Amino acid sequence: MTTYKTTASQGPVRSFRDIEKLEQRAYRELIPSHHLYEVLTANAMLYGGRPALTVLESASPDQNSLTRTHAELLTDVTRVANLFSRLGAERGTVISILSRTHPEVPALIWGAQVAGIANCINYLLSADVIAALLNAEKAEILVCPGPRLDPEIWRKVEKVVADTPSLRTVVVIGDRPDGLDPLRYVSLGDQLRLVGGDALDAPPPVAGDRAALFHTGGTTGVPKLVPQTHKNLIHAAWCLGQLFDLSETDVALNGFPLFHVGGTSTVGLSVLAAAGHLVVLTADGFRNPEVVSRIWALVERYRATVLGGVPTTIGAIADVPVDGRDLSSLRFVLTGGASLTRAAADRFEQRVGVPLLEQYGMTETVAAIAATPLHGRHARGSVGLRGPFSEIKVRQPGHEHETRDCAPGEVGSVLIRGEQVVSGYLDPSQTREAFTEDGFLITGDVGYLDADQYLYLTGRQKDLIIRSGHNIDPLSIEEVANAHTQVLLSAAVGMPDHYAGEVPVLFVAVSEPATFDLPSFRQYMQDNIHEPPAKPKHVFVLAEIPVTGVGKIFKPELRALAAGNKLKLEAERLLGEQSALQVSAAGSAPLTFTVRTGQPVPVSAWRLLEQAAGGLGMTISHHTTESNNKDLEL
Questions:
Q1: 570-596 pLDDT, tens per residue?
Q2: What is d(CA 94, CA 293) in angstroms, rounded to the nearest whole number?
Q3: What is the pTM of this model?
Q4: Which of 122-161 are b and which e, b meaning 16 or more Cβ less than 10 Å from the residue's Cβ?
């Protein structure tokens, strides 16, 4: 007799002791599903008539969008899986999805995970990077919107198809253009009419089969590709279900893109696998400004219990007036993906009156490393407790290349091991440096565990600013900046420096640029940062802080701007104030800067600039066609 069970909460988690109690029970008793199709089947059998998925067509709370029940969603996913099988997909076939979140897309993703391996690609990437990803993963099927539905993505598709020899089928959402090879380009609607949705035509996957292939948030070159198994996905969803006390009564508003684990796992499968109701906030999610401006009306309309967003999104919705909307259904709001400053968190909770919980994960852990337990201690600055059946270690270098576990409160490198952690990258050469000899994933984060096993992150190892050997956490600067009444968002990075190696500089976006008193703000920072090396050397005001496709602050671009500003200062010092600097390749390596002068300068002055650039880690690569211009690489 088949036993059906969702990943819903087994009871409130109030402390680490409750996690230990869960770990004393049989794993298969707690999580009987081996693969995604079993999860969806359990939902349909237990809660078939309850709502499962709604994809909003607009941000208007008055518009009625189509809602699928759990029984209907199982049929949809079954039909999609059969469609891909009919197109030749097998267990290891990579099915890439390049699309905004149109109503058909969630079932396409889950159907691809059942039939083969689903690969959701960031549609904001350039055509060249998309093609490189498709080739690296040897994608055979590409799903995309047609030119009438999304002309911007279609233009990219036209470029990448020609550059991807492994692609044999393109499934078009919406109208398929005339004049294309009908054997290679097929209509989604036409194909769905050829298959049934009552049962799978091919055998279902097993726990260890790859279900998804995600690219990391790579900032230079081609991002890494991360294979996630069905067991990885289900265990991550179950862990979050325990810490957030999720059940079939939950309704989550999901504004994340589905090419990111925040959308597919954190506010995605974690709710869906508990038989909850997932409401996708339009095709563009939080990138749609109307979604942000109407967020509280949408919470009221759908009686949402869960809402999530990265810190920049949290800051934006905190500024949206509640205007008497009924938010009584909202149990908590969660955030993760980047550091959350204390000032931003306190401002949100004061304005909205709902607990803001921090969650910590990465693509390699299906977004599930730790989370603040809803019913436990809410320790501001902590990302909470680890999930059950996993391990977190904080280690520091020891003697003779060995490491040692840190004592409570002692800062070190954060490591994770568990069923939600992937076994490696698609490229094996990238795996070797990512794991310790005893199988822990090296997160790249720095932090500590307290006596109650709450994890605190103090920074990213690569984001640390090292000034004359002194490690500076950017968050310690950003906390002070964000507490200023006129600062909307801030980011601290290192600027190259001849003497100190690098010095901290600060970028800010402000509410009233025309009246912002920069000298006064600089003094405010000097007065309120009590660690002298952490005091920003320079403060730069930007119209907006650059962010990634999911709203995380994009520090590589800011580091490029900082390096460019440093080189500008050197150019002005050595070549005269008439020199000007243009940054022509921010955010990738090598960075190229072009120095232009208003008049010819002596060769000796160029030589001095070459020496200065060398001291900053830059080299002059070649002359431009004009004798008074130089290109430099970082």
A1: 766 666 655 554 444 344 444 555 655
A2: 37
A3: 0.80
A4: bbbbeeebbbbbbbbbebbbbbbbbbebbeebbebbeebb
